[in-house]
Write a structure and sequence with these properties.
With 70 residues, this protein is mainly alpha-helical. The chain has one domain. 59% of the residues lie in helices and 0% in strands. It contains four helices and no strands. The radius of gyration is 22 Å and the shape is elongated. It starts with a helix and ends in a 17-residue tail after the last helix. The model has no long low-confidence stretch (mean pLDDT 82).
């Protein structure tokens, strides 16, 4: 959004169009995401994707409660 502000578009207008609150934007601007947090997020996504794509890992079938009795 800083690029838009440099182009003359106010942050207030940009936040309204994007349906974002100004306060979280300014909080993020004052304390941006660190490189290590980005790396951690990429690793978490890679683990999630590997788990999702592994055919050996499956959730139990819905409605299945173990062996039938009686």
């Amino acid at each position: 959004m800083t690029e838009l502000a440099e182009a003359g578009i106010p942050v207030t207008v940009t936040c309204r169009v994007l349906k974002l609150s100004r306060q979280p934007y300014y909080r993020w601007l004052a304390n941006p995401i660190t490189t290590s947090e980005v790396v951690e997020a990429y690793r978490a996504n890679a683990l999630f994707d590997a788990h999702r794509d592994d055919r050996r890992i499956r959730a139990p079938a819905a409605g299945r409660r173990g062996p039938r009795r009686g």
